[in-house]
Amino acid sequence: MTAFPERILMGPGPSTVPQRILRALGAPTLGHLDPRYIEIMDETCVKLREVFMTENRLTFPVSATGMAGMECVVTNLMEPGDEAIVCINGVFGARMAEVMERAGVVVHRLEVAWGEIFTDEQIAEEVQRQPKAKVLTIVHAETSTGAHQPLEGISKIVHDEGIMLVVDAVTSLGGHPVKVDEWNIDAIFSGTQKCLSCPPGLSPVSFSPAAIDVIESRKTKPQSWYFDVTMLKDYYSGKGKRAYHHTAPVNMIYALREALEIVLEEGLEARWERHAHLHRRLRAGLESLGLSYIPEHSLHTLNCVRIPDGADDGSVRARLLDTYGIEIGAGLGPFAGKAWRIGLMGHSATQANVDLVLAALVDCLE
Amino acid sequence: MTAFPERILMGPGPSTVPQRILRALGAPTLGHLDPRYIEIMDETCVKLREVFMTENRLTFPVSATGMAGMECVVTNLMEPGDEAIVCINGVFGARMAEVMERAGVVVHRLEVAWGEIFTDEQIAEEVQRQPKAKVLTIVHAETSTGAHQPLEGISKIVHDEGIMLVVDAVTSLGGHPVKVDEWNIDAIFSGTQKCLSCPPGLSPVSFSPAAIDVIESRKTKPQSWYFDVTMLKDYYSGKGKRAYHHTAPVNMIYALREALEIVLEEGLEARWERHAHLHRRLRAGLESLGLSYIPEHSLHTLNCVRIPDGADDGSVRARLLDTYGIEIGAGLGPFAGKAWRIGLMGHSATQANVDLVLAALVDCLE
């Protein structure tokens, strides 16, 4: 077997995966129609509903990494010629516009500067300007900037106009509150490799009953067969026949089940508070080193700071990796070479890691 | 951790995964841009080229299960309005037609009965009838029927007419010869969970230089962002910058790397011969029990036999599973309730398993 270096993953994901999840991942592969596997899948979906805080029947992990969840949501909810308001304040809002356009959707871009968030007033104005919009999409946790977008006010505004709310929660689920039912979210997607600390490879999604109504009244078939939930929903909902659609990624489901179990053992509230507390500790330390945060409303789970004058981006990150085994993230897009992204996600969010990365930065910035 | 029953996987996939691969799967998760991970990915692609018997630069595992490979090939090669000849002799040919139509392709269906294969003459006639066809797609190993389609003659016929050849090798790669360069295949996809005995979750694909030319001269963007190889090929080819596209399924890549290593240690020729030899042993045993094969040209890797009169499909399979821990496959489509599919793939293809499944069938059919 090949050699693996020891790493502490404090970038934008994956986060460090606990041994318990790695052991679950390496359990014997069962057939995807084996009665015991079906039970494990059902258990996984039940736990996923708890973590998403939803009763949505159609809540399951898409069999591919995080961006596939975005594509699954778009492919199923939207038909060619439909209109969407896409809120863009970083890479992942822009990505959504791109995925929408490939699906033939007329995209209305609502943009604010990278690192900023949207106000209720901006959303209310745009919703008025676009009376034909079917959905509004917004990024709850923008991984490219660390901005943390409040959703409750926005949800009321869009639903008052009969528009559905689609949320990208890739970097928040399991680290920040994500209250799908309370916030009335119609479709949401996340990833396993961020605050759930499961290896990358699955994308949890959830669709509201209203979203399912829209999907069931489509005039056209979704352009993707692989992501078509009309063929998957019986498999994952526990209703009807467990017909074969595609071979499920069996071992990744074992790992996700274990990861969700760990989240629920800790408790959602306690887990959010751990991330909040360690973010405050990290932030105080970074600011005392003269590193300033880019977003005014920062995520706890991803800390995006300006690279100080005189520091060389690549050599600092290389030294962190080589000397300390610590991975942090580079800036993306306009922040390339200008920002670092320090993740505090799931199993990586410990006081030991916070104190170590601060000590390592002191050393590397000398 | 949850309890797992012991299974011997002799269905249509997944096959039994060796401990060595499960251990590789459970190795520590690295970041997808970690220099060591990039090396592991490069090693994986090098080995994949060896197993596909190709020099194709664009040879990599799609980050999703087997059917995603089909969708990746269609999405990249085809544009709306393009024409395709789709050869259908089972579920997976029909699936290809469906995926093509969702991509806006004009599909010319060439059908023979389930379980039969296509003759060179049938292909030659159809190619003459469809002068505007851009590709011809065919299933090398039809998992729903066990039919084994020869490809060399067909490849010459389609290329003589300037048509590209697309091959579904999900159930043959690693069990039967799949000679991508020698057979002049333009695009091919497979799965990890069949004759490679890796868990499900990835879909190896390979595109010829001619296919890349077609992709690079597209007039429209592929409808899928997730499967768009124009954004992936720098990442996987070792050329250019390793830009972020999506988070790779890191641990699944570890497992695939190990699975390919095992294939190459055994040697392709020896592996094909093992599958051939054990197929003959199984076939002799099944036929002596009065079980007849459905396809005249049977795969070695999947053995599709008629359920004998008087035997109850569900109760025999349940007894095999409960008493012997053996999973075999049910029939699909018109063969539901009429056929069993017994897989001899990769790690499951042993003399012990052949003799055990025969003994177990004797017991269950009494």
UniProtKB/TrEMBL annotation, chains A, B:
Top-rank lineage group of the source organism: Bacteria
SUPFAM superfamilies: PLP-dependent transferases (SSF53383)
Domain called Aminotransferase class V: residue spans: 30-332
Family annotation (InterPro entries): Aminotrans_V_dom (IPR000192), Aminotrans_V_PyrdxlP_BS (IPR020578), PyrdxlP-dep_Trfase (IPR015424), PyrdxlP-dep_Trfase_major (IPR015421), PyrdxlP-dep_Trfase_small (IPR015422), SP_NH2Trfase/AEP_transaminase (IPR024169)
Keyword terms: Aminotransferase, Pyridoxal phosphate, Pyruvate, Transferase
EC class (word): transferase
GO biological process, one term: glycine biosynthetic process, by transamination of glyoxylate
Pfam families the UniProt entry points to: Aminotran_5 (PF00266)
Binding site for substrate: 341
Cofactor(s) required for function per UniProt: pyridoxal 5'-phosphate
GO MF annotation list: alanine-glyoxylate transaminase activity; L-serine-glyoxylate transaminase activity; L-serine-pyruvate transaminase activity
EC numbers on record: 2.6.1.44, 2.6.1.45, 2.6.1.51
Residue numbers of N6-(pyridoxal phosphate)lysine PTMs: 194
Family to which the UniProt record says this protein belongs: Belongs to the class-V pyridoxal-phosphate-dependent aminotransferase family.
Protein name (record): Alanine-glyoxylate transaminase/serine-glyoxylate transaminase/serine-pyruvate transaminase
Organism per entry: Haloferula luteola
